[in-house]
Structure formats: C-alpha cells, structure tokens
Amino acid sequence: MSQTLPPCPECASAFTYQVDALLLCPECGHEWAEGEAADDSAQVRDAVGNILADGDTVTVIKDLKLKGSSSVVKVGTKVRGIRLVPGDHDIDCKIPGVGQIGLKSKFVKKVLD
User: Fold this and answer.
1) Window from 34-48, 53-67, 70-84, 99-113 with minimum mean pLDDT
2) Do 46 and 38 form a contact (C-beta atoms < 8 A)?
3) Which range marks the domain in which residue 87 is found?
4) Do 71 and 103 share a domain, yes or no?
C-alpha cells in the first residue's frame, strides 16, 4: 500500500519520510507531526518566535529605512493594532508620524502584557 507524504513545510522538499509519529525532511532537517504542517504555515511569528495576531502591539527591533524617503522608523517604536496580511511584508500597520506601512515580522517583537 503506497502512502503519499506531504512535502516539507520549511523547504518544500518532496523527499520526506516518516519515523513513528513524526515526518522528517532529509534536506533541511525539519521535523513535524502530520497535522502540524498546515497550522505552522498559517501562523506569523515575530523575531523571537512569539505568535502574532491581528490587533497585537509590537515593538520595532531594528532601525528601518523607508524606501523613497529620508525618514527612518527607529528601534523601540511601538506599533499598536497590527493587521496580518499575506505576502513578504506580512504586517500592515499605521505608525504615528510615518503613516500606513507594511512591516516584516522578523523586524518586530510582540509586546507581552
């Protein structure tokens, strides 16, 4: 009986194999459970691994130069009420003094209450 395994959610390799309850990727070394792959791809994580959600407050962890402008979003800038969107810049937000902007989740840290 032939069972087709899903591709690796990290590198999309088709050479995945199963060991007990885990699926493994020989190319990147990623391990995951069968139902876990779909859940991980839908989650957006910040620079330290916290899961982000719509409405969260985040802090910028690096000075970010804005293309087409001489202004900079400074490290420590607090952004309230983010909205998650698909794409490379996966956070849509409004920064006071700058306006509407798209941020990458790898340059922010979630503010934990």
Assistant:
1) 34-48
2) no
3) 57-110
4) yes
